[in-house]
Design a protein that fits this description.
355 residues, alpha/beta, Isopropylmalate Dehydrogenase, Rossmann fold, ten-stranded mixed sheet, 12 strands, 40% helix, binds nicotinamide-adenine-dinucleotide, binds 3-isopropylmalic acid, binds manganese (II) ion
């Protein structure tokens, strides 16, 4: 069992440094409890990197990411750069491309402590457990772009290989869960959607034990809030995955609850990134919800550092803290980032021996 890890921390902008700072304190407590060591390298990304280094991510930072065991990322984005030619978000896109993290795992589950504060009815939310797998390094995000005022275009390209590899990750995940995979596309309109569907059908022959269905992306948006329990694993392209996961965040109750893991080929470093952004509306106030990033660190221990024991302990500490009423404003509570972080730290190791 590995007990020494090199982790690249990229706090980024807005609430990024707040939620990464909170998570680092939780990891310090976990390392003491479990006796592992994390060697951190901390660097700039996003608007912070533009200001200090002239680019949203430097070549040195990309090299540091490649030689790490895992990257723990906060958020990027700053209204100061809205409408400009150089964008903080480009740093994150370059990082995903450099590490070829093509499969972005975004689990969305109902949280017992929050069910009654959801805008959706209890009978819709209770028991929801969906894993959205978003293709992350291709599609309209990465095709050729033409940018002008009279004419602009984003080219959406998928190759058979790009669809196959993310489909395999999704079939494998479904096989370990309830055995149901929903592939989401717009095959009724888009050429890439028809390719997507054909390739997923072809790969499904390798996984006869997984039950596959295809649902159009617009209808999926509706099903997700009308009957979210119909889903086990969803696999979809880069743009649909981005939108559907924000929509799905109303199931647990807030963007501040959604973690994610961006994974490439086995043995290569993953990027562990909460789904939410830099939240400029609340940055600097000390009220950001750190749970998404703490749960993201839990995903890092499970999928990146092969320490499921640490992952379970972090997830358990978060549940206990939530059950005890440590809820930030976005969850209808009045606790701040600091209080929630302290609560999680207090409950690291809670319930051990009862498992
Ligand atoms: P956002 O996720 O930053 O915020 C959306 C809403 O959710 C806001 O009201 C915000 O206050 C709230 N929120 C988000 N995370 C929260 C948390 N942890 N605790 C409490 N409340 C939280 O999305 P946005 O406002 O559309 O975008 C703001 C900036 O972030 C933009 O520049 C965007 O490009 C960027 N962004 C970055 C990432 C990323 O770095 N992965 C993801 C999404 C958006
Ligand atoms: C996300 C974000 C990013 C995306 C942006 C900031 C580039 O919205 O991670 O969901 O669109 O992928
Ligand atoms: Mn997004």
């Amino acid at each position: 069992m590995a007990d020494r890890f090199n982790v690249l921390l990229l706090p980024g902008d807005g609430i990024g440094p707040e939620v990464i700072g909170a998570t680092r304190r939780v990891l310090d407590a976990a390392s003491e409890h479990f006796g592992f060591e994390i060697v951190y390298d901390e660097r700039l990304i996003g608007a912070a990197a533009i200001r200090a280094e002239g680019a949203p991510v430097s070549d040195e930072t990309l090299a540091a990411a490649k030689s790490s065991n895992a990257v723990l990322f906060g958020a990027v984005g700053d209204p100061e750069y809205d409408g400009g030619d150089i964008r903080p978000e480009a740093g994150l896109l370059a990082l995903r491309k450099a590490l070829d993290t093509f499969a972005n795992l975004r689990p969305v589950a109902a949280i017992p402590a929050l069910i009654d504060s959801s805008p959706l009815k209890r009978e819709i939310v209770e028991g929801v457990d969906v894993l959205i797998i978003r293709e992350l390094t291709s599609g309209s995000y990465f095709g050729e772009k033409v940018e002008g005022f009279d004419y602009s275009s984003d080219n959406s390209v998928y190759t058979k290989e790009e669809v196959s590899r993310v489909a395999r990750v999704a079939f494998e995940a479904a096989g370990r869960r309830k055995g149901r995979l929903t592939s989401v596309d717009k095959a009724n309109v888009m050429a890439t959607g028809r390719l997507w569907r054909k390739v997923v059908n072809e790969i499904s022959k390798e996984y006869p034990e997984v039950e596959l269905d295809h649902v159009l992306a617009d209808a999926t948006a509706m099903h997700l809030i009308q009957n979210p329990r119909r889903f086990d694993v969803i696999v979809t392209d880069n743009l649909f995955g981005d939108m559907l996961s924000d929509e799905a965040s109303v199931l647990p109750g807030s963007m501040g609850m959604l973690p994610s893991a961006s994974l490439g080929a086995p043995g290569t470093p993953g990027i562990f990134e909460p789904v939410h952004g830099s939240a400029p509306d609340i940055a600097g106030q000390g009220v950001a919800n750190p749970y998404a990033t703490i749960l993201t660190a839990a995903m890092m221990f499970r999928h990146g550092l092969d320490r499921p024991d640490v992952s379970n302990a972090l997830e358990r500490a978060v549940s206990v803290a939530m059950e005890a009423g440590y809820l930030t404003r976005d969850l209808g509570g009045d606790r701040n980032t600091e209080e929630v972080t302290e609560a999680v730290i207090r409950w690291i190791g809670a319930g051990e021996g009862q498992m």
